[in-house]
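**User:** Hello, beginner here. Are you able to go through the protein record under this note? It all follows right here:
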Amino acid sequence: MDWRTASPHPVVFVSGPEEYFASRSIRSLREQLKQLDSALEIHEIEAADYQAGQLLNLTSPSLFAEPRLLIVSGVERCSDDLITDGLDYIANPTSDTTVILRHTGSSVRGKKLVDAIRVNPNCAEISCIAIKGDSEKLAFIQGEFSHAGRKVTQGAAKALLDAFSDDIAELAGACQQLLQDSAETITEDIVDRYYGGRVETNAFKVLDAALAGQTGTALGLLRHALSTGADPVPLVAGIAMKIRQLAKIYGNRNASAAAVGMAPWQMDRAKKDLQGWSEDGLALVVQRLADADAAAKGAERDPVFTLEKLVTLISEKGVSRV
């Protein structure tokens, strides 16, 4: 099941590392079951502390036959007793009872139980895969509005990503707040009205803008990063890492990603970023990187100015105007 549209089943296996998706789906299941019967009896236990017989005791019908919800957390650390009892339970689950098993995937502990769950018709799985790249996060934003039957422009989605790029829970919270707005379509202006001025940035965002030739945007991101406490040293290091990748493949574009120590997606991105660069321009940027690194580490009184010159040079593909 998709984590946004989870529905109750006798056994629900919530798998994967993205804790926000997991907690939201579990909360949704709890609320749905509560709406079906306000007398729902809820129990929560830790898989590592599980003792033989607990599953049977907590899911057995009570005197008044109230429905039950049992949430078992940390199945990646489960005891042997939970594996044994779990295998018996999924073969014959208790009626009017929902058992939720949460497994982060951080270990292979409980593999026998997990494998059995995945082929049992009494069980359903909610996969909570971590989202990492900007494209996946933009798809998440679009999904939040689509699920609510609303629209969001691409510019508004990008503005949200710029404002809350490092925390999925905060990003989701921002989407939920914008959904309270009466506008039929959420635009970039609306996002700016709510969250204007909040731009989380790092060296990679600065460099992405510079490599795209967006000098003003790159300098703006750089100055915002520095004004909010970012240190020039790690900023230069982050930029240097990406420039080194470009230098590695400039004259070796037919090499495999493994041969140059890069992931395939990094190789593809680097080839795209190299468009329009000359060998002399790339060599000049490498030289200026060394100057910026030294300046950031105390060789100059104004390392920010040197860093700004470097970012400008990158945005102009190494064509010095000085």
Notes: The chain has three domains: 3-127, 134-195, 203-315. The mean pLDDT is 91. Strands lie at 11-15, 41-46, 68-73, 97-103, 123-127, 151-152, 185-186.
